[in-house]
Specification:
The complex is a heterodimer of chains A (about 375) and B (about 200). With about 375 residues, chain A is α+β, with helices and mostly antiparallel strands. Chain A has helices spanning about 5-15, 20-30, 35-50, 65-75, 85-90, 100-115, 125-135, 150-170, 205-215, 220-225, 315-320, 370-380, and strands spanning about 230, 260-265, 270-275, 280-290, 325-335, 350-355, 360-365. In chain A, a hairpin with a 2-residue loop joins strand 6 and strand 7 (about 360-365). In chain A, helix 1 (about 5-15) packs parallel to helix 3 and helix 2 crosses helix 3 (about 35-50). Chain A is elongated. Chain B folds into two domains: about 5-90, RNA polymerase sigma factor, region 2, helix turn helix motif (Rna Polymerase Sigma Factor, Chain: A, Orthogonal Bundle); about 100-200, Orthogonal Bundle (Arc Repressor Mutant, subunit A). Chain B has helices at about 5-15, 20-40, 45-60, 70-90, 100-105, 115-120, 120-135, 140-150, 155-160, 165-200. The radius of gyration of chain B is 20 Å and the shape is elongated. The chains are: A alpha+beta (about 375), B mainly alpha (about 200). The interface of A and B includes residues 68, 74 and 336 of A.
Chain lengths: ~375, ~200
């Protein structure tokens, strides 16, 4: 075997891809030829560099979500898109299509007449929805926590719960909307025995809180849960918490540009934190699997892949024999949800799971924001 | 725990399941990004290309033959997207893949090997070699990335690019030779510069 033959087979030789017999011949040649040995060394060094992958940067957080958003925003093209506007207009006014155009026009006119004379209600336009628009001064389609506003029963239950809270807390009386239902007479009071009495305590700016709930249509399971507890971030207006300590996040977990405005501890030990900033509002929910009580502190590892927990254990935990909390990021998943109205950005949730002291928590960050922005916020929950 | 196959996910995505498609993205985003990053050398560019790949994938999903493996098909889309992007960007006047480049390589002097340890600092080697790879034509670059970054066999590369295994072997040999030529050329240029600066 000569140098030229060895040269041709050298990279295969380095990767162990040559037949044993051929391999022996190459090795024999290499023992005799210093130039080919040098070539071999160079090839091995190149191979090592070509296989190096550690310098490849990580992908941006929320990449898949961004792709899905782009896919949703790109219109589906069909053959019509390639036809010019003039040609399409001409095609539209071809003689044989005139009867069809006439029929469509007649149907449209009929629909218009019926709609303006209130004989045919527009879909989703109920008296209650109109009332909600009146009291908020803006359309009520922006959903944050996924309430289906088109259901009159559900809306009634929200209003009923707020009404009970109103009874208990006179501070918020002036902000209570008066709602008339289409299904029941306005004068008919809501029976007390049908609704469980919630122990609602509004600690952080009562009037604002109730108004924002109306504006954003916050999930009624949060606002009207029977075991609802609210507290101020400074603890000044902290209510008498008899059941358990609320979850207080570390300041380091605050997303940049946002401030924590509300903490809610719901039933099933679910905690919701509300952050506000830049005219936006985001919600962070901590959902313990199996409804177990969460500890006073938890490491909310960001979905960017942090594996270690550097936070100190709370005093109560230090007294116990348990070591430092060991947290582990389990799974990350971004869940885009469809917008309720065409053209509006949809609600986006980025969620991930954290395991601490053998208890699994789902962390959800929800907001109506561009996915990259929400990704940045979610990443900032990492310390 | 049963793992849903890629082919099943494609099938579900074709039925309209956006979650299935999202799962495909989660599985392959790193692979696609690795190819794009190695082909371009720029993170932002590679991310843009990766997005373009998955959007193209979504549009062409109906063309996928579910009786075949999914990764080679995706790799082919990725490589083609990268090459198209690079050609658009650089407005490269493309040379014939199999003839012109290899003939041009013959103009270079034959290998005059030196002790590699004397030529390269170990730390500089990675950057030096990947810079050299990015001087190669896109087709050769793709071969190198698939072979060494994704650790594909020649047969898998053949499946991905839709060419024969023998053709892959020939092209891979030429790619390696062209890489060596570029490295030696850069080394000679550097030596000349060093000599010039020393004489001044």
């Amino acid at each position: 075997m000569n140098c030229q033959q060895v040269d041709k087979l050298l990279y295969l030789f380095c990767d162990g891809l040559v037949q044993p017999q051929l391999r022996q011949q190459i090795e024999d040649h290499l023992q005799e030829c210093p130039a080919c040995r040098n070539n071999l060394t160079m090839t091995e060094m190149e191979n090592e560099a070509l296989r190096y992958t550690e310098d490849i940067p990580p992908l941006a957080l929320g990449f898949s979500l961004e792709v899905i958003q782009k896919i949703n925003s790109v219109p589906i093209t069909n053959h019509h898109s390639k036809v010019g506007l003039w040609s399409r207009l001409m095609e539209l006014f071809r003689l044989h299509r005139l009867p069809v155009i006439a029929s469509v026009t007649a149907a449209f006119l009929l629909f218009f007449v019926l709609a303006t004379s209130n004989l045919l209600p527009l879909p989703g336009s109920t008296v209650m929805e109109q009332s909600a628009r009146d009291r908020t001064g803006e359309p009520n389609e922006v959903l944050v926590a996924g309430i289906n506003q088109s259901s009159p029963e559900k809306e009634m239950s929200v209003i009923a719960d707020v009404g009970i809270a109103d009874k208990e807390d006179s501070d918020i009386e002036h902000s209570q909307p008066t709602v008339e239902s289409n299904n029941k007479p306005a004068s008919d009071p809501i029976p007390q025995e049908e609704v469980p009495t919630p122990q609602v305590e509004y600690a952080y700016n009562h009037t604002e809180t109730v108004k924002s709930q109306t504006d954003y249509s916050v999930n009624n399971s949060i606002t009207a849960a029977p075991n609802y507890r609210g507290t101020d971030i400074n603890g000044e207006l902290r209510p008498d918490l008899t059941s358990r300590e609320p979850f207080i996040p570390r300041p380091g977990y605050m997303p940049t540009g946002y401030s924590l405005t509300r903490i809610e501890n719901e039933a099933d030990n679910i905690t919701t934190l509300t952050y506000e900033g830049d005219g936006n509002r985001i919600f962070l929910r901590i959902i313990p699997e199996g409804g177990e009580k969460p500890p006073a502190t938890i490491s909310m590892l960001s979905p960017s892949g942090c594996q270690s927990d550097t936070m100190e254990a709370p005093e109560s935990a230090k007294n116990e024999s348990s070591p430092q909390p060991e947290s582990e990021l389990l799974k990350t998943k971004a869940v885009p949800e469809q917008s309720t109205r065409k053209g509006l950005p949809g609600e986006i949730t980025i969620s991930w799971k954290v395991k601490q002291h053998n208890q699994v928590y789902t962390i959800q960050v929800t907001g109506i924001l561009p996915p990259t922005e929400l990704g940045r916020i979610a990443a900032s929950f990492d310390d | 725990m049963t793992v849903i196959t890629d082919e099943r996910l494609v099938h579900e995505a074709l039925q309209g399941s956006i979650e299935a498609f999202e799962e495909l993205i989660e599985r392959y985003q790193r692979l696609v990004f690795t190819i794009a990053y190695r082909m371009t050398g720029h993170r932002e560019e590679a991310e843009d290309i990766s997005q373009e790949v998955f959007i193209t994938l979504y549009r062409k999903l109906y063309q996928f033959d579910t009786s075949r493996k999914f990764p080679p098909w995706l790799q082919r889309i990725t490589v083609n997207t990268c090459i198209t992007h690079l050609r658009k960007k650089n407005k490269v006047v493309m040379l014939n893949f199999d003839e012109t480049w290899s003939n041009r390589n013959q103009l270079f002097p034959t290998a005059n090997y030196e002790d590699p340890a004397a030529v390269y600092d170990q730390k500089e080697l990675m950057a030096e070699i990947w810079d050299a790879v990015r001087q190669m034509p896109e087709n050769y670059r793709a071969m190198i990335v698939l072979r060494y970054q994704l650790e594909l066999t020649n047969q898998e590369i053949a499946d991905s690019l839709g060419i024969s295994r023998e053709n892959v072997e020939v092209r891979m040999h030429r790619a390696r030779k062209s890489l060596r030529k570029i490295l030696l050329h850069r080394q000679a240029e550097r030596r000349e510069q060093d000599e010039l600066s020393a004489s001044r």
